[in-house]
Fold:
Amino acid sequence: MSDSIEDIEMRLLLEAIHLRYHYDFRHYAQASVRRRLRQAKKQLQFDTFSAMQEALLHDETMLSRILGYLTVQVSEMFRDPSFFLAIREKVVPHLRTYPSLKVWIAGCSGGEELHSYAILFREEGLEDRTIFYATDISPDALETAARGIYSLDRIAGFTENHRAAGGKTSLSDYYSTGYGGAVFDKTLRERVVFSDHSLVTDAVFAEMHLISCRNVLIYFDRTLQDRALGLFRDSLVRNGFLGLGAKESIRFSDHASSFSDFARTEKIYQRREP
Amino acid sequence: MNDAPERAIVIGASAGAIEALSVILPALPADFPAPILIVVHIPSDRSNFLSPLFAAKCQMSVREVEDKEPAERGIVYFAPSNYHLLVEEGGTLALSADEPVQHSRPSIDVLFESAAEAYGAGLVGVVLTGANEDGSSGAQAIASAHGTVIVEDPAGAYAETMPRAAIRKCPEAHVMALDAIAPFLLRELGRS
Structure:
């Protein structure tokens, strides 16, 4: 970041969040962080980031409000249907050869992606042998994901995506309406472990067959992207799969040689033999 | 980062974008001395057709942005549909899936504002035809950072709302006909 007063204040604010609450945003991609923090400052009605920092240090309730701005992620079920079609048609046949499976949805946000996988795995008959790990740094996001309720106006888009992703059933089989939204069947979450985990500061916690981390790395700078990709490499079984967002790439990473292209346009990679 | 270009062009266009860009981009040489970053509003289900379309027409290389690639001279970069495009200091391109801004993702304002911080006086922003007001705050940000702003003359534009809004918020903008924009860019960049 440059040396304008605002940038200095912003850096100090991120440092304060780290020292006081151990959330580390210091290596997030700066242009997005700057946008999000300015939005937070405006909506929480602070004149300066220094004022925001003081409130944050002395008032714990301020943390979750600011985290809300820093971690907001907007996803949808079966986002980029061609990705999920490739998982279904190309990755699933490999997964079938394992007697038990571990799948990690890293940065699960509000759970749209997790529910997409749970439905796809049920349709493909893999659900019973699978444990899903859904992780995020935001407690609010994890709570939303574990609730599995999405507003009704999003369902038409989800349904269209599910169909385009090769869905073998009707999406409406998996939810009922209530609580002002579509409530997804709790049996979809029976094999899910929700957990607070940071790609920035935490370590490997299990050996995975598939890791899905889409549109999370775009918020990281290259240093942090390298850390996360190293973590994914160390978490995957030999020939395990890594799915990234459509416009994310491992091309610029130190770990590029640890993975090979499996489905190039869909950004599905495979862990190379070590 | 020493070799990162100090100058860049950002362009925003909405309704009528393809026709307008077809006047500007093919007129620029393969060795154009700056990167050109473009946001076009397109429905997300028609994604990814822009870069092949213009690659066939242009002397410059044309591609869709991939996260964290460096912006290089002589290359036209299109923001992928459904993502915001931002510029990091040092001229690295970054994407975000944050919520739409003024109903748009990608948003012209988001690109222009981040590029204004990254390139300062080295930036030229171009607001073309469109039926909304995206780009006007961004144009203002570019002018505040001492960059140059060009707006397509609303009188000749396919949709005049966007250029009019930009002129209103950024009165110091150079207003010119579509076919004058490429020659202006060549003169402007030739000086540096």
Observations:
- The mean pLDDT of chain A is 94.
- Chain A touches chain B at residues 1-2, 29-32, 34-36, 72-75, 215, 217-219, 221-222, 225, 245-249, 251-252 (CB under 8 Å).
